[in-house]
Write a structure and sequence with these properties.
Number of strands: 0
Distance between the termini: 101 Å
Helix content: over 70%
Bound molecules: zinc ion
Shape: elongated
Structural class: mainly alpha
Number of helices: 9
Radius of gyration: 29 Å
Largest sheet: none
Length: about 150
């Protein structure tokens, strides 16, 4: 009888360390799938996963602090902030930016946003300039018609 490669090197048992890696999303897809399958099949393992999750040092993975940290690394661009002000972003991104500004209170983006707000409130001058340009071009059109 021929032993297959898999039998000679059996997959590592699902121990706490593997569960911890699974929680940290640090497993290769193959292992991750194996853990997920085992979790589906075993209530005992699910309980152990919960224990590991509560005990692990980096359990704050999904806490506000972690989100804050992650968000700091992914500031929206100035262009996205501008679109956010104009309310022309897709809802998902708008929600993210709202979270980033209002919950995370990223000082960098808040300053950027204040700056952009000042710019969008300024255009009273540029609007009348636009009107002037429009009037002068209407005048030109009128001239051409004649
Ligand atoms: Zn930011």
């Amino acid at each position: 009888m021929i032993h297959s490669e898999a039998e000679r090197t059996p997959p590592a048992p699902i121990d706490d360390e593997l569960l911890r890696a699974y929680l940290a999303d640090a497993l290769i897809a193959e292992d991750s799938a194996r853990v997920e399958k085992a979790l589906r099949d075993s209530a005992e393992l699910r309980a152990r996963l919960e224990e590991v999750r509560q005990g692990r040092q980096d359990a704050q993975l999904h806490t506000l602090g972690a989100i804050w940290h992650r968000s700091r690394l992914t500031c929206p661009t100035r262009q996205q902030l501008g679109s956010f002000l104009l309310d022309v972003l897709d809802p998902g991104l708008a929600d993210y930016i709202r979270f980033h500004i209002e919950v995370v209170e990223c000082p960098f983006c808040r300053a950027n946003l204040t700056d952009l707000e000042a710019q969008t409130q300024a255009p009273t001058g540029s609007k009348s300039r636009q009107r002037r340009i429009l009037q002068s071009s209407q005048h030109l059109l009128g001239e051409e018609k004649r």
